[in-house]
Amino acid sequence: MATDAISEYYRRGGERTRLTASGVGRLEFLRTWDVLTRVLPPVPATLLDVGGATGVYARPLTAAGYRVHVLDLTPEPGVTAAVGDARALPVTDGAADAVLLLGPLYHLPERADRVAAWREAARAVAPGGVVVGAVISRFAFLLDGLLKGFFDDPGFPPLVERALREGRHVNDSSGRSYFTTAYFHRPEEVAAEAEDAGLTDVQVVAVECPLWLNDDRLDALVGDPAATETMLEVLRGVEREPSMLGASGHLLGVARRP
């Protein structure tokens, strides 16, 4: 795993505001939050937020009454956090009532490492506890590149071809930066990896569904409370529909420790 490149990407600071500002990022946050409110145990449960150093979920979860501890390779100021690797968590067995992996799986190109992260989450959560892992869709890089005009760069199509073929993304040596070292999942891979780690009852949820592709309308949907509630209600009804999964920008795997 290219930790230097990944750390540099997050040090640049885009993730600090991306999920709370507007548009696509705000849609991702609202939908992820909506799923969390339905699958997490009631307050004051103990949550382990692995890879959540910006605190974008830790802060509101704490405000809601949860006991949240963040573990991250590069914890940021302002968040109660400790240094930790998702593949080897420095916690005792069953230490948490729920474990969140809302970022680490993005940056583990090797399947064995992703399964290790799921397995460590399964070890860290109490029996019957929930683990929620976020991944990026295999097709998000291609669709995002079309919307943002990246295909005008002759170096971009080979990156997309590799991502579609292998799921892997690594920026080339040209100095251009499209995201950072990452793995993009096919929908069926999410449950398979979680189950290989010993988790059960795995459900795969489309976060944005195809709605993230309509950027012109998103600010209105996420900026007006009534429109937001209608949007969330509608997307709840189709979030597990298989035909929605591949077109979503992100997916959530929701699983339990037996």
Outline of this structure?
The chain is an alpha/beta fold. The protein has helices spanning 3-11, 14-18, 23-39, 58-63, 111-124, 140-148, 156-166, 187-196, 215-223, 225-236, 242-245; strands at residues 46-50, 67-72, 81-83, 96-101, 125-137, 168-169, 182-185, 200-206, 250-256. Helix 3 (23-39) crosses helix 9 (215-223) and helix 9 packs across helix 10.
Relevant terms:
258 residues; alpha/beta; Rossmann fold; globular
Strand-helix topology:
Layout: H1 3-11, H2 14-18, H3 23-39, E1 46-50, H4 58-63, E2 67-72, E3 81-83, E4 96-101, H5 111-124, E5 125-137, H6 140-148, H7 156-166, E6 168-169, E7 182-185, H8 187-196, E8 200-206, H9 215-223, H10 225-236, H11 242-245, E9 250-256
Parallel strand pairs: 1-2, 1-4, 2-3, 4-5, 5-7
Antiparallel strand pairs: 5-9, 6-7, 8-9
Helix pairs in contact: 3-9, 9-10
InterPro entries: Methyltransf_11, SAM-dependent_MTases_sf
GO biological process, one term: methylation
Organism: Dactylosporangium cerinum
